[in-house]
Amino acid sequence: MQGEPGTEPRIVQRVIEVDAARRTQLLRHLLKQHEGEWDRVLVFVATQHAAQIVAEKLYKNGVYAVPFHGDIAQGTRTNILSDFKDSRWDVVIATDLAARGIDIAQLPVVINYDLPRSPTDYIHRIGRTGRAGESGLAISFVSAATEAHFRLIEKRQGLSLPREQVEGFEPTETAPPVVDASGTGGIKGKRPSKKDKLRAAAAKAAATSAPDKADKPD
Description:
This protein has seven helices and seven strands; from the N terminus they run βαβαβαβαβαβαβα. By secondary structure, it is α/β, with parallel strands linked by helices. α3 links the parallel β3 and β4 (91-94).
């Protein structure tokens, strides 16, 4: 993501594959690995509950992290942002709604702990870093279950980003099977062929004509 020098953000985008259950551990690992380099990090999550939980886990492990969401009083949110700008908080765990007004110069890193729902929200999120011509880094955590969604984000934004893995956090999960009740064999967008329809009709007829075992004489 790059524009005219001095006017548009220059953002390096990275995608890290990780099992959903290990995202907090990976986040903590990255924060420790880049301690001193990342003085402030904005982390996006999908829900207020996730913001609370992730912030609490990080704080208990020695990371100055704080949740930031709509259920927090406006005055408190204002204070959090002020302290974040002054680097009194290392990490802010935010939801999309609460983060709309965040405008912090020289914010080095944004991390998508949860992927945004839409490609537009993705651009809005990563645009919190690399402001006023500064360079920035945006990292997205992608699991087997969210890989397809991230590919959609890439398609809509004209992106093709390499996938990375962090040693010790290699994913083990596989994508869930596609559940489809339309008779298309689980392939999205594929309609049943004439042969498929004939087979289905024959199977239905056979099932209807077969005598019920409960009605058979002993």
